[in-house]
TrEMBL record:
Protease keyword on record: no
Origin species: Acetanaerobacterium elongatum
GO biological process: 'de novo' IMP biosynthetic process; purine nucleobase biosynthetic process
Binding site for [4Fe-4S] cluster: C249, C395, C446, C449
EC number(s) given by UniProt: 2.4.2.14
Keyword tRNA processing: no
Keyword list, A-Z: 4Fe-4S, Glutamine amidotransferase, Glycosyltransferase, Iron, Iron-sulfur, Magnesium, Metal-binding, Purine biosynthesis, Transferase
Pfam families: GATase_7, Pribosyltran
Protein name per UniProt: Amidophosphoribosyltransferase
Gene: purF
NCBIfam families: purF
Cofactor(s) listed in the protein's UniProt record: [4Fe-4S] cluster; Mg(2+)
GO molecular function, one term: 4 iron, 4 sulfur cluster binding
SUPFAM superfamilies: N-terminal nucleophile aminohydrolases (Ntn hydrolases), PRTase-like
Active site: C9
Length: 476
């Protein structure tokens, strides 16, 4: 219904020296990571080698209640996952974490990202007799690891071997009967950090999940690093680390991450403030009030206001109780749904020249609906400012930025987009500026969706939707 971008998922893992309520810890961490995936979620608990899991479609509080958490019981390790699908359809089978039983034992796997060679690997595995139960590429990773485990001396050695075959974006949490393992792809597309709560070691996609548990942030995993936690302590394997800064998806700072998270040493909140400031410098305008589109447009709007001197106002109120499953079929019903999810404070915008700040424009339909709401509330002028450059290329690494034919910036000029969505002027942050928003970040950035400069080889001569449907269709 809303043509906003989405990130695939969030992962969490905890290792405790003592048996305890690790499922509850995973529950609270997933609650903190809910923004990263709202289709399905799951938790798996390890109690002395006995693995109990529960997962389903829905939000964290819908899937897990007191009775479910009680049935998961206590243990010394747990893995959690929240999912938004970019490959694989929406079904309970595609929910994670995956629980795998193989000849060398058991394994639990949670994955954030997308493989660019998932289709090739799946075909190879199927030709070797593999039977897939899901339509996502996480099961491909599970097969590659279990294959490697047949000859590897340990689960971490199998993960090292598997990383030679899988290509693309992956932040992984892997649990065996005795070990908890976290791994990040050599490019570092997706974030993954480590923390400590007393004697417990925790891993999460974002530091806000550590904060929710009262855990102390230790550090981000390096691109290509594998961290192993067991009864002997913590070990780091860096055979796949390239010694480079990596290429974290820049949209973690623009949109995906919670503003209270710190990624690669940079505050997400401050990065969005800086994005707004750059917008004000690059696209100044005479106006009366700056309004942000909830949620990720709010910080950028504050930054625009501070830099420009134009007062900031709360102009759009978001209904927090409308989930992403609230979808209506007809055009009129979809427009009504926008009004239910967002309402305009007329006192803020009526008779005013409004700077409307949002994080992105994908197809333009949602932007047009929001602009229409603000117009109907009495805005005299609307000047839209976007804290990301125009999308010119699809993403193959876990973000659902679509094929070129579905991106409005590939079909229209900026002036034409402005006319299409009904604004008086439109400005996007420059690519040079967006690379500088995360002040102090210890990483480089992937900005291929703007520039087309992909850090790794991507599928050629095939549109993104066909690439993803090839992966999904095999088991549909």
């Amino acid at each position: 219904m809303f043509d906003t971008i989405h990130e695939e998922c969030g992962v969490f893992g905890i290792y405790s020296k003592e048996r305890g309520p690790v499922a509850a810890s995973a529950y609270f961490a997933l609650y903190a990571l809910q923004h990263r995936g709202q289709e399905s979620c799951g938790i798996a608990v390890n109690d002395d080698g006995v693995i109990t899991a529960h997962k389903d479609i829905g939000l964290v509080p819908e899937v897990f209640n007191a009775d479910v958490l009680k049935k998961l019981g206590e243990g010394n390790m747990a893995v959690g996952h929240v999912r938004y699908s970019t490959t694989g359809n929406q079904s309970r089978l595609n929910a994670q974490p995956l629980v795998i039983k193989h000849v060398k034992g058991k394994m639990v796997l949670a994955h954030n990202g997308n493989l660019v060679n998932a289709d090739t690997l799946r075909e190879e595995l199927e030709m070797g007799g593999a039977i897939f139960h899901t339509t996502n590429d996480t099961e491909v990773i599970a097969y590659i690891i279990t294959q490697a485990r047949l000859n590897a001396p340990s689960i971490e050695a199998a993960v090292e071997k598997a990383m030679e075959k899988i290509k693309g974006a992956y932040s992984l949490i892997i649990m065996s009967p005795q070990k908890l393992i976290a791994a990040r792809d050599p490019v570092g597309f997706r974030p993954l950090c480590m923390g400590r709560r007393g004697e417990d070691i925790v891993f999460a996609s974002e530091s806000c999940a550590l904060d929710s548990l009262g855990a102390e942030f230790i550090r981000d995993l390096d691109p290509g690093e594998i961290v192993v936690v067991d009864k002997n302590g913590i070990r780091s394997l860096k055979g796949h680390c390239k010694g480079q800064k990596g290429s974290l998806c820049v949209f973690e700072f623009i949109y995906f991450a919670r503003p209270d998270s710190v990624i690669e040493g940079a505050s997400v909140h401050n990065a969005r403030l800086r994005a707004g400031a750059y917008l004000a410098l690059e696209h100044p305008v005479q106006a009366d009030v700056v309004v942000g589109v909830p949620d990720s447009g709010l910080d950028a709007a504050i930054g625009y206001s501070r830099q420009s001197g134009i007062p900031y106002g709360i102009g759009l109120i978001k209904n927090r109780y409308v989930g992403r499953t609230f979808i209506q079929p007809s055009q009129a019903q979809r427009e009504d749904a926008v009004k239910i999810k967002l309402n305009v404070l007329k006192a803020t915008v009526a008779g005013k020249r409004v700077v409307l700040v949002d994080d992105s424009i994908v197809r333009g339909t949602t932007s047009a609906r929001i602009v229409k709401l603000v117009r109907e509330a009495g805005a005299k002028e609307i000047h839209m400012r976007i804290s990301a450059p125009p999308f010119m290329n699809p993403c193959y690494f876990g973000t659902d930025i679509d094929s070129k034919e579905n991106l409005i910036a590939c079909k229209m000029s900026i002036d034409e987009i402005a006319k299409e969505i009904g604004v008086d002027s439109l400005g996007f942050i420059s690519t040079d500026s967006v690379r500088r928003i995360a002040e102090g970040a210890r990483c480089g950035f992937c900005d291929a969706c703007f520039t087309g400069n992909y850090p790794v080889e991507t599928p050629v001569n095939i549109s993104k939707d066909k690439f993803e449907s090839k992966i999904s269709a095999k088991n549909d």
